[in-house]
Amino acid sequence: MKKSLTMLLSLIFVTSALLTGCGSNNNTANNAEGDATATNGANATNAVATEEPVSTEPFEMTIRHTQVGADKQKRLAILEDVVGKVQAEVPGLTFKLDGVDSDVNRKEKLRGEMAAGNPPEIFDLFGSPDSKIYAKESKLLDLTPILEELGIKDKFSNLDPFTYEGKIYGLPIGGSGEGFFYNKEYYASKGWQAPTTFAELEKQLAEIKADGKVPLAGASKAGWVPLMLANHLWSRYAGPDVTVKFATGEAKWSDPDVIKGFAKYKEWIDKGYFKKGELGFEYAEYTTQFTSGEAILMYDGTWKSSVFKAGQSGEGLIGKVGFFNIPAVDGGVGDQTALMRDVNNGYGFSASAEKDPRQLAAVKSFIKNMFNEEMQLRGLVEDGVLPAMKIDQAVLTANITDDLMSEIVGVLNNSKSSFPAFDSLVQADVTTEISNIQIQKLIGGQTTPEKMGAALQKIQEEANAAVE
Amino acid sequence: MNKALRNPLVFTLFIIPGLILFLMFFIYPIFSSIYYSFTSWNGVSDTVKYTGLTNFKKAFGDERFWISVKNNGWFILFSICIQVPLIVFFSLLIANVKKLKGLYKTAVFMPSIMSTAVIGILWGFIYEPNIGLFNKLLGLVGIEPIYWLSDERFAMLSILITNAWQWTGFYIVMVLAAILSIPGELDEAAAIDGATGFQRATRITLPLIVPIISVVIMLSIAGAMKAADIVIVMTKGGPAGSTEVMATYMIKYAITNFKYGYGNSIAVLIFMFTLVVTALYQLLVARRTERIEY
């Protein structure tokens, strides 16, 4: 009797444990089905009774954003305002905001969700190459018909990073340009202006060095930081369109003009223009070197302008920071005013939204409310993010009250063309090689510009062959 | 009840939940990883293409992979040759202090409960070239600043020191527990016979804690093979890939580049290497250690 009872209890325990372990999803699914049945039933009843076409039943959508941390509060406020508007427009909709660190979202969370087939309905998306890989696997919603319907398809400055086989799969939230931020107070004390020639720039760097100051901020623990300037230099010497030609085989990393760019960077390293020990410093220290007055110039993206606002780490430099483009180099190829500009950060939408009319309506409303002149101007004024959409110059000028931003916009207007950063143009293997190995070897004195070019070209050819 | 538990059917029923969890969270991921290691899966696609041994050939032919293997080797050597002797030394010291033993135990254990990110920041200050503690001390004796984390010659050593600092306390507490469980009579008898403190430590205590030292070495080897966080926090594998270990190589060269098939092959290699190293240690060293009975 005892034995049978024990057996029975054991069986009940094991069975219940198994059912508990395996049952939750089914229960959810069943509940969802039950709810759906009930909802459908209710809808059917309502439809008959009131003929109401739009369901007001509550439903939830998730927005994965990367506006986390104190520096991104203004950008988060803009998103929250959009969320409020969309919820008011779409009956029954509740947005769940899921804030995740940008790098974690891009390289881990979103990739895992894409592989599992359950990404959030709306999410922060990196343009090239990420959006193209997801689009190729049909994970992203084709936005082309929505943009046509809303009449904003041609309102964006550049949608290339989010375009795959002629269809648009994501929208950039803002843009950025890269150039030199300089300490105006120091420049004024020397009676200098922003350099207009490359020789003048180099003369200033030499004099800053002689003055016992650090001419250029340096923090190269992450390779992309020094590569911002290096990319601009090789594009000055070899032409703004040279990088795009690496992947097609029309140009080589080992071409003499490209090597000139590496050599100039190396020359500045050897002359001690960058902060010593830069390979051990994080990006955050890059800004600190400039805001503390230790470094007089800092080559960075326009997004950095948000630091020089009240309440931010560069508050002490408000009104004392200027911005200029790299001047023309002697013997440089192509447009010597070309500015490195990117529109790689934006939003993407899950392909699953297409199957649900209410989700699709929410996506349309989100795009309508987020991607318009008002929000783009708010991003510019409040957060220092350049508009990704075309905005009338008069409107732009009228809205900018910040001196630094005015200077940045002036630089943008004076550049006749632009080119994207290398990492959106070459294969991932090449990006890894130059970011993690070659640029750090150049800085550390373990390679020469020529050897660097040859090493990169070898990886480039392997990557090109793999594509073929 | 006891009789019932001897019944194979009841026994089986009780182990089924545990077995299912084991299969789900241990066996399945291993086999899944092995499966993907033979493919060129990009981590997103619904279809996977079988590529045979291509990923493994690529890894074995990549100089950077071997640099990362070598760095894992440095982790193991540093653990066994430097860290373990220090662990034993400090354990013996703490075991013999008369006052504030609890304080010492807590103090040495503290780093192991701290997040690696915090430790990275903390040691980042110590290694800071201009205001860091190490360079300040070196400056006192007229030595020029060393760029600990940005100089290829010192970066790996800096990581090894930090990693040892983080985990030494954890192992000290383990060894200390073994020392304190040795019956006091053995030590007292030796003291009465005229043995010095050093003789008692080396001739009595040390031989009796060999099994736990063996466990510490095993855990150190396993820890060294999967090291990643401390490298990411301190150098990101740089400068120029000189501090890359297998796990960071896997992340950098495979996972972030949408090469999950290749990443899985590196994961399998890490698993295999760890298995071989620990098996060799078990066969050559640990099994020869006599069991201790008091």
From TrEMBL, chain A:
Residues in coiled coil: none
Does this entry carry the keyword Glycoprotein? no
Q: What keywords are annotated for this sequence in UniProt?
A: Signal, Transport
Q: Does the keyword Glycoprotein apply?
A: no
Tell me the leader sequence span.
1-19
PANTHER family according to UniProt: ARABINOSE-BINDING PROTEIN-RELATED, OSMOPROTECTIVE COMPOUNDS-BINDING PROTEIN GGTB
* Family (UniProt): Belongs to the bacterial solute-binding protein 1 family.
Descriptive protein name: Extracellular solute-binding protein
> What lineage is on file?
Bacteria, Bacillati, Bacillota, Bacilli, Bacillales
UniProtKB/TrEMBL annotation, chain B:
**According to Swiss-Prot or TrEMBL, what is its membrane topology?**
Multi-pass membrane protein
Which cellular compartments is it found in? Cell membrane
Parts of the chain that traverse the membrane: 9-31, 74-95, 107-127, 164-183, 204-225, 266-286
Identification of the protein by name: ABC transporter permease subunit
GO cellular component term, pick one: plasma membrane
Question: Any idea which UniProt keywords this protein has?
Answer: Cell membrane, Membrane, Transmembrane, Transmembrane helix, Transport
The ABC transmembrane type-1 domain covers: 69-281
